[in-house]
């Protein structure tokens, strides 16, 4: 199966609605007449609207049409933002300054449009104090409430507690 619109001999209907190279509507003509007009203009007969009855065809340069659509698709890909998930790792007994540095990074990630996955790692005796981890994640949630929403609630997986935040 070819990509793009059907052209020239690939169009298999007895009659078509024809628009010539100048953009003038020629009305309903036979497929043979339309192909002959396209050949005389040294251009292609391209199916523009295949789902109408009869299909709408236009006399134009198929190569230029394909090139323009490729350029348009490339431009659209260039301007789209790929959302990444950035990970911030903390410990439950994190110091105030370290916490502020991590929060600055979290805000920067939100400004860039990325999601943030907060990971708290518990070691040794910290496992007995899961509530400290929950308090820390709730504190983060409250601080970024106006710029972010919780996408995945805090959950414990083994020795790690995770929460995913997304920008609003």
Notable features of this structure?
single chain; alpha/beta; 35% helix; 168 residues; rod-shaped
Please tally the helical runs, counting DSSP H or I stretches of 4 or more residues: 4
Radius of gyration (Å): 30 Å
Q: What do the pLDDT scores average to?
A: 92
Order of helices and strands: EEHEEHEHEHEE
Helix content: 25-40%
Looking across the biggest beta sheet, what order are the strands in?
Answer: 2-1-4-3
Main pleated-sheet profile? 4 strands, mixed
Q: Roughly what fraction of the amino acids lie in strands? A: 25-35%
| Uncertain residue segments | none
Structural class designation: alpha/beta
- Counting DSSP E segments of at least 2 residues, the number of strands comes to 8
Report how far apart the termini are. 42 Å
Shape: rod-shaped
Q: Could you please describe the fold and organization of this structure?
A:
By secondary structure, the protein is of the alpha/beta class. The chain is 35% helix and 32% strand. The protein has a 4-stranded mixed beta sheet with strand order 2-1-4-3. The mean pLDDT is 92.
């Amino acid at each position: 199966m070819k990509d793009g619109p059907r052209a020239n001999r690939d169009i298999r209907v007895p009659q078509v609605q024809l628009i010539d190279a100048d953009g003038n509507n020629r009305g309903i003509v036979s497929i043979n007449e339309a192909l002959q007009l396209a050949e005389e203009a040294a251009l292609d007969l391209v199916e523009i609207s295949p789902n109408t009855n009869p299909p709408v065809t236009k006399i134009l340069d198929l190569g230029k049409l394909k090139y323009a659509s490729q350029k348009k698709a490339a431009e659209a890909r260039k301007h789209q933002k790929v959302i990444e998930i950035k990970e911030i790792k903390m410990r439950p007994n994190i110091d105030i300054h370290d916490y502020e540095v991590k929060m600055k990074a979290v805000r920067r990630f939100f400004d860039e449009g990325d999601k943030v996955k907060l990971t708290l790692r518990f070691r040794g005796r910290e496992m007995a104090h899961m509530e400290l981890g929950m308090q820390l994640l709730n504190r983060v949630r409250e601080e970024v409430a106006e710029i972010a929403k919780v996408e995945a609630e805090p959950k414990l997986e083994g020795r790690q507690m995770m929460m995913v935040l997304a920008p609003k």
